[in-house]
Structure prediction request, 196 residues.
Amino acid sequence: MRLALVQEVQTAIPDCVVHAASNLETAVDLIAKIAFEMIVVDPGLPGHEPGSAKDRLKVIATLQELCPTAIHIVVTSADSQKEGEEFRKLGVAAYISKNHLRPRSMGAILDEIAENGFSIGLVHPLGMKSEIYHAALSGREQEVLASMLQTPSGISRRQVYEQLAERMNIDPASAERYYKRAKAKLLKYGHPPTAI
Prediction:
C-alpha cells in the first residue's frame, strides 16, 4: 500500500520528493531532519495496536505536534466518520478510506482540501460492489472498468465517461473506448464481466 500511496502523491504533485517510513519511529526521525509540506499516514502503523483508538490518536497527535504546518492526510482501513472527525479536530486535513482511493484520486483530495479545508472519503460496505482485475488490462482500462462497476444505479454510462474524462484528462470518447477494450479483453480471456 505504501508504494501505491507514493505513486498517488507523485501523480498529484509530479515534481515532489516523497520519503516513506514504515513505522512511527522512522517518521519521527525524518521529521526531525526535513520540514515536510505534506504527511500521508495510516494510523495503524507497526508497533501500535491498529484497532486501539488510543494508539491511533497517539500516532496522529505525535505527527501533528512534530510537523504542525504540514498538510496531514490519514489513509486508513478503519473507515469511521467518528474517527475522521476526531482527527480533523487534531488538525488532519483529510481522512480517506483505503477502499475509497482510486488511481489519480489524490489530486481530487488535495483540491477538496484547498476548497473546503477538509476531505473525508468513506466507503460503506453495503454499497460496495465487486471489482475485476486482470493482467491483460492496462492501467487506464482497469480504472475505467472499476469506475463502471462502482457506478450507482441511476447514473448513465455517458455521465461516467464524462466524469472519467475529467479525472483522467482525456475526452469522454476515449474513456468509452477504454471501457469497450477492457470488456473485449475480458471476454477474449473467458472472463465476461457480468455486471457491466
In short: The beta strands are 38-41, 71-76, 94-97, 119-121. The first strand starts at residue 38 and ends at 41. Helices lie at 2-12, 24-33, 53-66, 81-90, 106-116, 139-150, 157-168, 172-188.
